[in-house]
Specification:
globular; about 425 residues; 10 helices; Four Helix Bundle (Hemerythrin (Met), subunit A); alpha+beta; 2 domains; paralog of FGE (formylglycine-generating enzyme)
């Protein structure tokens, strides 16, 4: 898996020239060259050094790549190693890690650290992917085979809601899960009222109706925070949309395409999702409602429900279950992947687009910071909103029903959409 993650990282930057590897200074992205070094430094810091290795494989790496010490805007001003030097550092760190793995059976602590570094790299590979979208770079090319969006093409829309019974739901991960992050710990009872949730995420066509109805100009649909963001951003439509006469187009990496009606709307921030819901007479689900709809076994009732690891059950994700792993290099119709339905009949709760919830990102009761990566969750509690489910670029080994992602509500660069609930 370490080699697979590294191959993906290298694929995502292989075609970029020196200028593209730095890119313009923007609030929402990192210079790709810096981000590669940060990923490698994380492996060295949280695996090799944590396991007692003293030799520094790159002198001054802390001053360059520690994301909590190096201020974001300074990352463009650093004297970074060249691309060749950065990749040589990457190879040296990986070689040392693989040597350790091959020389002895890893302990439980070592296994945890290797997985932590692996999944951290997977997260940054997703960030490399949306950075390419933000900077209008070409669609990435992968060295492994991809299905290029042919699977279940034309699956169409999936309208309607499903009814979810109320009761006591155990929100969060259970200790039997092989690897979880600290913000998922641990399952605790939450009372849930009966609710209705959409079978699928909101589509481009549905969101276009909101935009065409003047949704971005009508203040009554926007909260105070949303109005503040609108005024500051000047947004008149989704960030990568434009009108060609009477028709909408969207930008996919460096290519403008006619808006595909039945694809899940993507690159929508929390304020836009909230405003759409107000216009449509709907609401965003809480993260408890979202997880219940994805995880519970309807036949057993909510209170005694056996939680599924994935919407379809406990079997690991495949290309028949969900749009993950960049297999389709973009969104697909919301009606695709029927084999991935949850027990209640919700589709694509894993993959395609991250789904905003109404919930702010806070710790669960009894929260304890995981060591050694203390900064994973704790610094971000409060203003961030919870997203669930992963997106088309998320690695299948990372995502599960209990995984909690989090972003500030103004972020439109990430691969996020949403589904709605009846009021």
């Amino acid at each position: 898996m370490l080699k697979d993650a590294r191959r993906r990282t290298l694929d995502l930057v292989a075609d970029l020239n020196d200028e593209q590897l730095m890119g313009p200074q923007l609030d929402m992205v990192n210079p790709p060259l810096w981000e590669i070094g940060h990923v490698i430094f994380f492996h060295e810091l949280f695996v090799l050094r944590e396991l007692g290795e003293k030799k520094l494989l790159l002198k001054g790496a802390e001053e360059l790549y520690d994301s909590f010490e190096v201020v974001h805007d300074d990352r463009w001003q650093l004297l970074l190693p060249t691309k060749e030097g950065t990749l040589a550092y990457a190879q040296e760190v990986q070689d040392r890690m693989i040597q350790r793995l091959e020389s002895q059976e890893p302990s439980a602590k070592e296994t945890y650290l290797y997985l932590l570094a692996l999944l951290h790299e997977d997260m940054h590979d997703e960030a490399f992917t949306y950075t390419r979208q933000t900077l209008e770079y070409p669609q990435p090319k992968y060295s492994t085979n991809h299905t290029a969006g042919k699977f279940e093409a034309g699956a169409g829309a999936l309208p309607g809601d499903v009814e979810i019974p109320g009761g006591t739901y155990m929100l969060g991960a259970v200790p039997q899960q092989p690897f979880v992050f600290d913000n998922e710990k641990w399952a605790h009872p939450v009372e849930v009222k009966p609710f209705e949730i959409a079978r699928a995420a909101v589509t481009n066509s549905e969101f276009a109706e909101f935009a065409d109805a003047g949704g971005y100009e009508r203040e009554e649909f926007w909260s105070y925070g949303g109005r503040t963001w609108l005024k500051k951003s000047g947004a008149k439509q989704p960030v990568y949309w434009r009108q060609d006469g009477k028709n909408w187009q969207r930008r996919h990496f460096d290519t403008w395409l006619p808006l595909e009606e039945n694809l899940a709307v993507i690159h929508i921030n929390w304020y836009e999702a909230e405003a759409f819901c107000k216009w449509a007479g709907r609401r965003l689900p809480t993260e408890t409602e979202w997880e219940l709809a994805a995880s519970a076994e309807p036949a057993s009732g909510v209170q005694k429900a056996e939680k599924r690891l994935y919407p379809w059950g406990n079997e690991s994700a495949t290309s028949e279950h969900a749009n993950l792993d960049s297999n389709f290099i973009g969104c697909v119709d919301v009606g695709a992947f029927a084999k991935g339905d949850s027990g209640f009949g919700c589709r694509q709760m894993i993959g395609n687009v991250w789904e905003w919830t109404a919930s702010p990102f806070y710790p669960f009761p009894g929260y304890i910071v995981d060591q050694p990566y203390r900064e994973y969750s704790a610094p971000w509690f409060g203003y961030n909103k919870v997203l669930r489910g992963g997106c088309w670029a998320t690695r299948s080994r990372l995502i599960r029903n209990t995984y909690r992602n989090f972003y500030l509500p103004h972020r439109r660069d990430v691969f996020a959409g949403f589904r709605t609930c009846a009021k």
